Automatic annotation (TrEMBL):
Topological relation to the membrane, as annotated: Multi-pass membrane protein
Bilayer-spanning residue ranges: 29-56, 76-94, 115-136
Keyword check for Oxidoreductase: no
Keywords on record: Cell inner membrane, Cell membrane, Electron transport, Heme, Iron, Membrane, Metal-binding, Transmembrane, Transmembrane helix, Transport, Tricarboxylic acid cycle
Function: Membrane-anchoring subunit of succinate dehydrogenase (SDH).
InterPro entries in UniProt: SQR/QFR_C/D, Succ_DH_anchor, SuccDH_FuR_B_TM-su
This protein's pathway: Carbohydrate metabolism; tricarboxylic acid cycle
UniProt cofactor(s): heme
Record localization: Cell inner membrane
Record protein name field: Succinate dehydrogenase hydrophobic membrane anchor subunit
Highest taxon in the source lineage: Bacteria
Length: 154
C-alpha cells in the first residue's frame, strides 16, 4: 500500500538566504513594477534608435563620427540617448541585483557583489552622461583636416 504524505510533511522550498523582516516596505514590489514599465519604455527607445540609425538615410553605412556628432548636436537626441542609457543601466542593475539576492548564499558575498554592481553601474551612468553632454565634434582650434564633414572650418 502506498503511503501518502500530508502537507505538513513536505519540506519547505530551498531558500538562498534567510528572509528577514526589514523596514524597506514595498521595495520589491516597486522594483518589479519598475522592471515592467522600464522594459516597455526601453522597447520604444531602442527600436526608435535602431530605426533612425539603420533604416533612415543610407542605413548602417552612414554611421560614423560625423553621424553621431550631428545627432548629438540636437538636444532631442541627447535626451533620447540619455534616457536609453539611464533606463538600460537601472533596469539591468535591478535585474542583476535580483540574481545576486537569489543565488549568493552568504551575506558578505551578497554585500560585496551588490556594492561592486552599484559602483560599476554608477560609473557607467556618470561617464555616459558626461560623454553625451560634453561631446564636441568640432573642437575649437582643431586642424581643419581632422574635423568631420559636419564641421565648417573658420
Amino acid at each position: 500500500m502506498a503511503q501518502t504524505q500530508t502537507p505538513s510533511a513536505i519540506a519547505a522550498p530551498r531558500s538562498p538566504y534567510a528572509r528577514r523582516k526589514t523596514t524597506r516596505g514595498n521595495f520589491e514590489l516597486y522594483s518589479w513594477v519598475f522592471m515592467r514599465a522600464s522594459g516597455v519604455v526601453l522597447l520604444v527607445l531602442v527600436f526608435g534608435h535602431l530605426f533612425v540609425n539603420l533604416m533612415v538615410g543610407e542605413g548602417v553605412h552612414a554611421i560614423d563620427f560625423a553621424f553621431v556628432g550631428g545627432k548629438w548636436s540636437s538636444p532631442f537626441w541627447q535626451v533620447w540617448d540619455l534616457l536609453m542609457l539611464w533606463l538600460a543601466m537601472i533596469h539591468g542593475t535591478n535585474g542583476v541585483r535580483t540574481i545576486v539576492n537569489d543565488y549568493a548564499q552568504r551575506d558578505s558575498t551578497r554585500g560585496v557583489l551588490k556594492v561592486l554592481l552599484y559602483l560599476a553601474s554608477t560609473i557607467v551612468v556618470i561617464l555616459g552622461t558626461l560623454v553625451i553632454f560634453t561631446f564636441t565634434p568640432c573642437p575649437p582650434g582643431a586642424p581643419a583636416e581632422l574635423l568631420p564633414s559636419i564641421c565648417f572650418p573658420n
